[in-house]
Design a protein that fits this description.
- The chain is of the alpha+beta class.
- It is 21% helix and 15% strand.
- It contains 3 helices and 4 strands; from the N terminus they run αβββαβα.
- It has helices spanning 2-8, 51-61, 102-109, and strands at residues 15-18, 23-27, 35-39, 66-69.
- The strands form 2 sheets. Strands 1-4 form a two-stranded parallel sheet.
- It is globular, with a radius of gyration of 15 Å.
- It starts with a helix and ends in a 12-residue tail after the last helix.
């Protein structure tokens, strides 16, 4: 389902995925719609341990305009429209699955709504 969502909103070239997943479904090189399971970051030559960091940077630089994050990868990251980053577009925060704890939900919303931002989400 996550791969399907990513393809629906533009594919891996447009979506920064920050999750705990090791792999993803990608279109085969030169293939006409055929999919294959690949390790995340393998095609770009990014070591698995650095994939989430590279995806975050792509989002903050504006190379990818959509970010999908999971609880597994959300600890300690900021995705707000910070005045110091290239991508200062207004953020739209959609939560697909609310955490059981209200405290965790507030922390999750804080990923896109923090101080020094150019606009509120």
């Amino acid at each position: 389902p996550l791969d399907q969502l990513i393809w629906l909103v533009g594919g891996p070239e447009a979506v920064a995925e920050m999750t705990g997943r090791a792999g993803q479904q990608l279109r085969k090189e030169g293939g006409e719609g055929a999919l294959e399971y690949c390790k995340r970051g393998a095609r770009e030559g990014i070591p698995h341990k650095d994939v989430n960091r590279a995806e975050r940077q792509a989002f903050m630089d504006g190379t990818k305009l959509i970010a999908i994050i999971s609880e597994a990868a959300s600890c300690g990251i900021s995705l707000q429209a910070d005045r110091r980053c290239l991508n200062q577009r207004r953020r739209l925060h959609i939560t697909l699955e609310l955490p059981w704890s209200a405290e965790k939900a507030l922390q999750q919303f804080g990923r896109t709504h923090r101080s020094n931002q150019t606009s509120a989400p």
